User: Which sequence fits this backbone?
């Protein structure tokens, strides 16, 4: 063995060692080259991409929702405000175990199943790292419990936001309307621009002015770049672009007048509309019963919504613009003017009223509401004052229905008024062509007798009746009714739709007849002017809900309460210089002069008793404030079957 060692080849071993060393060095150089290349790729070639990704983990772009525009009445009273509320939100990317986090939150604050369901739906449509609301309107105790457990709740935050608040509650529920949380149906209809505009905003206008002026009230979204830590908590704001607040609306509505009209209507179901004769501005807009719009702002509970939806009084139903009722004898002043203009009657036309009317070659008898008649010499003025059906039947029998239809449409009946509110119904004023198309039968003379009394096929909303009355008061100038008087302090000019042409003496006759309704010995609307120191011109109306058979007497006690006649009254004041026009509807109130006229009287008294400067249009501007579910449509609250030709009453 020692001999083998003696002859060992040291040269070979050195060469082998050197080769191995070179291979090792080459391997190290290659690995270093790969590492350097990778470093170069990361630090030079893809530097911007990886820096952006790093910033996305550290820097977040958050939308800053705009402050929704405020709404005031004509005197600067706040009708729609924004108030701070605290919302529990979760950033999904910052939460390790979402189910466990929600379970823990459920032990700290009250969470209903519907809160979690809505949260899960919102998760599907959010942007990355966008906070998703889980609970609204946290109490101070709930905020404190979450703050104490903050360490155990990564990705969970309590955020302050402005939510809509309606200080007057039920008083303006149907006119101002309300906002509510954006639902799936609305979201599915959003364009890309809508998605951008509503980033960070959870609410949208649902009904009323909140809906019709949504684009102006919403404002423009802003954004800010914020730096966050690994737990998603904001460390600092790097850059901010402020949002643009929504426009402020000043309305024609008057809070005090609205309150007076509501109190005068009392517990009755119905509507009151008051219009500024000189501008078309809506001064009062009452639909009774009403509802509290604050219930809808952050999501109404199933219990509360069911109570509103299932109520027999349908408080969610806007009677002013959606209630289509037979207008009854409130149409007679308009019909009288049309008859004069068409030459069917004149100032000297007199009719004998024995208490009934008969058409030629028709055996049926059409009975006046006053079964013993109004006398032998009834002219237009007494026909209006006493609401004599026979006078107007005699006129209708000699008047073409299509000419009647043309007159009615000039006064705004049978079509939408164009008010700046959504979901307005058009009502109906029939014509020969309409009946042929809708019913498949021709027009009969008895249909005209129904129509001239505002019965039969005729339907009108309380707003349409107010517009009709204001047009009469204006001697033919027909204004579009407007809710909004100014936008951001810029007054919106009145809009004249057209002018109804008639001779001055015809207007004088109609004025005199409507004044006689209130002040003559046999007038049907005396309660409208009781105790007032100015003159009122009006017209009462009583509209059937169910038909009464020929020869049968109307018996209130024999009918169910909701089958009794509707009570209506339309009027304007003062007669010598009209300022305000009013329409009143009391569902199932029976007597227009007895029940509806006193409501109009209270509205007139309040408005006309104010100093002149208080009733004139004026704008009150306020600087914007800033801080860092579907209505069930019910077009007919009660059935309104069209009475047969032998069941007409005034």
Assistant:
């Amino acid at each position: 063995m020692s001999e083998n060692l003696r002859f060992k080849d040291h040269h070979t071993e050195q060469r082998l060692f050197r080769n191995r060393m070179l291979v090792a060095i080459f391997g190290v150089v290659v690995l270093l080259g790969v590492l350097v290349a990778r470093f170069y790729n990361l630090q030079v070639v893809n530097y911007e991409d990886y820096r952006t990704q790093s910033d996305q983990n550290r820097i977040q772009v958050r939308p800053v929702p705009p402050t929704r525009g405020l709404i005031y009445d004509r005197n600067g009273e706040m009708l729609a405000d924004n108030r701070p509320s605290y919302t529990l939100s979760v950033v999904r990317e910052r939460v390790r175990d979402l189910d466990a986090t929600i379970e823990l939150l459920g032990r700290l604050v009250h969470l209903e199943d519907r809160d979690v369901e809505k949260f899960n739906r919102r998760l599907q449509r959010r942007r990355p790292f966008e906070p998703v609301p889980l609970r609204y309107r946290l109490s101070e105790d709930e905020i404190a419990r979450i703050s104490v457990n903050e360490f155990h709740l990564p990705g969970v935050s309590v955020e302050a936001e402005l939510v809509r608040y309606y200080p007057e509650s039920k008083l303006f529920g149907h006119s101002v309307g309300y906002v509510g949380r954006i639902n799936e149906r609305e979201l599915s209809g959003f364009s890309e621009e809508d998605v951008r505009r509503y980033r960070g905003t959870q609410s949208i206008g649902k009904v009323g002015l909140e809906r019709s002026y949504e684009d102006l009230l919403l404002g423009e979204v802003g954004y800010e770049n914020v730096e966050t830590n690994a737990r998603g908590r904001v460390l600092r704001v790097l850059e901010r672009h402020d949002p643009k607040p929504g426009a402020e609306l000043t309305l024609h509505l008057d809070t005090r007048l609205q309150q007076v009209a509501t109190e005068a209507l009392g517990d009755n179901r119905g509507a009151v509309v008051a219009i500024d004769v000189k501008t078309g501005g809506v001064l009062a807009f009452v639909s009774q019963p009403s509802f509290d719009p604050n219930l809808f702002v952050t999501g109404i509970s199933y219990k509360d919504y069911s109570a509103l939806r299932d109520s027999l009084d349908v408080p969610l139903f806007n009677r002013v613009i959606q209630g289509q009722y037979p207008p009854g004898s409130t149409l007679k002043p308009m019909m009288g003017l049309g008859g004069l203009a068409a030459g069917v009657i004149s100032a000297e036309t007199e009719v004998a009223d024995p208490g009934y009317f008969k058409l030629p070659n028709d055996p049926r008898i059409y009975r006046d509401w006053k079964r013993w008649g109004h006398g032998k010499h009834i002219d237009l003025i007494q026909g209006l004052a006493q609401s004599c059906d026979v006078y107007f039947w005699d006129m209708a029998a000699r008047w073409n229905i299509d000419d009647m239809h043309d007159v009615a449409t000039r006064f705004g009946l049978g079509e939408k008024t164009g008010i700046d509110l959504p979901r307005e119904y058009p009502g109906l004023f029939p014509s020969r062509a309409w009946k042929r198309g809708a019913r498949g039968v021709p027009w009969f003379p008895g249909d005209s007798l129904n129509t001239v009394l505002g019965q039969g096929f005729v339907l009108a909303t309380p707003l349409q009746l107010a517009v009709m009355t204001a047009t009469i008061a204006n001697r033919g100038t027909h204004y579009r009714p407007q809710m909004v008087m100014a936008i951001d302090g810029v007054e919106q000019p009145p809009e004249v739709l057209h002018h109804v042409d008639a001779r001055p003496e015809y207007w004088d006759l109609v004025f005199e007849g409507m004044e006689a309704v209130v002040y003559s010995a046999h007038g049907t609307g005396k309660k409208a002017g009781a105790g007032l120191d100015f003159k009122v011109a009006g017209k009462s109306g009583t509209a059937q809900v169910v038909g009464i058979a020929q020869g049968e007497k109307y018996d209130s006690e024999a009918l169910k309460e909701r089958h009794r006649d509707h009570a209506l009254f339309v009027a304007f004041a003062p007669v010598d210089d009209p300022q305000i026009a009013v329409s009143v509807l009391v569902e199932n109130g029976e007597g227009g002069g007895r029940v509806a006229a006193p409501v109009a009287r209270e509205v007139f008294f309040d408005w006309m008793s104010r100093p002149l400067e208080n009733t004139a249009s004026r704008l009150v501007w306020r600087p914007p404030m800033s801080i860092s579910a579907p209505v069930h449509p019910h077009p007919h609250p009660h059935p309104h079957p069209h009475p047969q030709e032998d069941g007409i009453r005034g």
Observations:
- The chain is about 35% helix and 20% strand.
- The domain at 255-615 is CATH 3.40.710.10 (Beta-lactamase).
- Residues 620-650 have pLDDT under 50 and may be disordered.
